[in-house]
Amino acid sequence: MGQLNGPEVQIVGTPGTSASDYGITLAGIGDGVQGISIYGFGNTGASGTGNANGSNIYIAIAATSGTFITNNVIGTAATTFPTNGTDPNTITTRSTGNGILLAAGTTSSSITNNLIGYNGNTGVQNLATGATGGVTITGNEIRNNALLNTSASGILLAGAGGTVQTNLVTANRGSGVDFDGSAGNILVTGNTISSNGTGGARTSGIRAYGTGNTVSLNAISNNTGSGILVRPGTNVANTSGSTTISQNAIGANGQLGIKLMNNTDAETVGTPVLNDYGDIDGRKNGSSAIGANGLLNFPIIVQARVSGANLVIAGYARPGVKIEFFNVAASGVTADGSGFGEGPVYLTSQVEGSAADLDNGTGTYGGVINGHNQGTDNTNKFSFSIPLSSLPSGVTLAPGNVITATATSSTITSEYSGNITLLSGPLPVELTAFIAKALNYDAQLAWTTASELNSDYYTVERSLDGNIFAKIGQVAAQGNKTTTTSYTYTDAGIGHQQPGQPVYYRLRQVDLNGTTAFSPVRSIVFASDKSVAISCYPVPAQSTVWMDLSSLADINTYQVSLLDNTGRQVQQWSLAGGKPQLLDLQNLPTSIYQLVLTGLAKDGSLLRQTLRLTKE
Question: Are 139 and 168 spatial neighbours (Cβ–Cβ below 8 Å)?
């Protein structure tokens, strides 16, 4: 922290006397305290357990706004503020109450650039009820508080709202920053929060409660319990106890980096909440939330590899979540022994289902993954190829590093995922294209690889429901090859078995050593036997999409309408049959559409076909 000029004024109380309940009381709008040292207040006997109501500086209810406390030493003499944890006060001079106490009803106060330490209770106890940012605690060093109370915190935010920014909060016996009893809307950002929770009752670096909180860009380390503990709230929404946690450097804590409490958990429980099918364990009877942050499922990472100039990561995540990736075991950092990550080094954020996501399929996972049981779910798959040059400045990756991730959905963030060890070298197979299209009643599959390493064969798998896949064929691979290879496979006659319904395909690539990897999933919808088959590719589409009209009469013209999700026509084309046609979607927003084709079939009957189209 920055240096503070020594105060020239010192105010000393006598603990245990009625006159020493409060040292200084701010009772008017705009009142302030600046440039003094104050200690010895609290009105509890020297052998007591601390006084939650007394304090060295008290902001009373009448001081509703505009108060400030800046450039003071609060809790010790002007000439000493140890950083080694040794209490400089004697038993007869120790402050037995809080360093600073804000009464309920105060809505706007500024606490900046103070040294606040060695108090019997909380360093700063805020009972104010203002909006976010109404009470700001910025640039302070808050250490070694709660000497007479094992559960008191460095900072307690018990009202609604507040900003805690760029403070050093360390070695307090309770949590470093505690939201106990708060309604929420608290911002904690840019702080160093370390070595707190030594009293054994409240052991986390941050103890979050309430809704609408944000914890971001903090360094949180060496706390006795979890780095961040999110407690369950009382709301009926699934976001009960909702706290967004983003881009923090969390490491070397005694328990998990992030712990989401179930309503039956003890605060000192340090085990992860495993993922569950459908991600419903945050609910009771399908509605009332009983777990913090809805016990949101964390991502599952099944592949992490540096390939050339890219970081390639693949796995499973809930639909549409933002995934933050972290390096758990960078140089000099040891991974958490639980096998579930902390995140000392932030790497990147990616969104499942975005244009950068190379896998639009779904799948089921369960059992032991990367050596650890991480739960089970049927959910979306993701795959990202992230340029190493896009990582934060100074961040490097090396084989043997350990990667973890969190998921954020709206205002709630998951625990850290199970760890995976980072590998290096080229991908066994670099798949550049995989297309499935209908030709009459056959499904024609085609895929292309840019290179292959120790690749044995491809299993072609088909599903009629998008979840359960079965092998329908096998194609030999190239083994080792550094140039482009194209493959094809035809699923003959499947359109007769599944008229008017989607058919799903994927590739299962098998290495010579038995290692497997899956391609994205592709789908085709066949027309009924009385009509013909049409298809679109690629799906999802981006700026353009091919509509394959090869099975239609080349002498006929067909009307194709694009309908939005309200049924409104947003675009129309007149297209010749007998060949694929390229449709321009560049000016359309991301959404789900329907393509409706009308015209005459080859036998002269009226033809009408509808295809679902997703545009990213």
Answer: no
Q: Are 311 and 323 in contact (CB under 8 A)?
A: no
Output 103 or 163, whichever has higher pLDDT. Answer: 163
Q: What does the alpha-carbon distance between residue 131 and residue 175 come to, in Å, rounded to a whole number?
A: 23
Q: State what percent of residues in the chain have pLDDT above 70.
A: 89
**Across-strand partners of 316?**
300, 381
Counted residue by residue, the chain has a size of: 616
In a domain, 182, yes or no: no
Residue ending a domain, among 525, 558, 582, is 525
pLDDT at 1: 52
Q: 604's torsion region: left (phi>0), alpha (psi -120 to 50) or beta?
A: left
What DSSP designation does 438 have?
E
| Cβ atoms of residues 594 and 612 within 8 Å | yes
Tokens of 439: 């030709």
At 576, which CATH number?
2.60.40.1220
Cβ(431)–Cβ(512) below 8 Å: no
The count of domains in the chain is: 3
Residue 308's pLDDT band, with cuts at 50, 70 and 90, is confident
Domain of 449, CATH number, reads: 2.60.40.10
pLDDT of residue 267: 83
Cα–Cα distances in angstroms (integers) from residue 37 to residues 72, 80, 111, 136, in the given order: 6, 10, 15, 21
**CA distance to 352, 547, 574, per residue, from 588 (Å):** 21, 17, 18
3-state helix, strand, coil in the chain (%, to 5): 0, 50, 50
Chain CA centroid to CA 287, Å: 23
Q: What is the DSSP letter of 616?
A: -
Handedness of CA 375, 380, 386, 392 (dihedral sign): negative
Which of 473, 492, 525 is the endpoint of a domain? 525
Q: What are phi and psi of 293, to 5 degrees?
A: 50, 30
Same domain? 306 vs 401: yes
pLDDT for the residue 133: 46
| 3 state SS of 495 | helix
Binned at pLDDT 50, 70 and 90, residue 70 comes out as very high
Radius of gyration of the CA atoms of the chain, in A: 31
389 SS3 class? helix
Q: Which domain holds residue 341?
A: 300-424
The reported pLDDT for the residue numbered 128 is: 59
Residues 199, 113 contacting (CB under 8 angstroms): no
Let me know whether 374 and 490 are in one domain. Answer: no
Q: Which two tokens stand for residue 389?
A: 């040059």
Are 170 and 195 in contact, with CB atoms under 8 Å apart? yes
pLDDT in tens, 317-333: 999 999 999 999 765 55
- Residue with the bigger pLDDT between 12 and 18: it is 12
Per residue in 138-170, pLDDT (tens digit) is: 999 999 999 988 889 999 998 878 899 999 999
Q: Please tell me the predicted confidence (pLDDT) of residue 203.
A: 96
Instruction: Give bridge partners of residue 402 from the DSSP assignment.
Output: 421
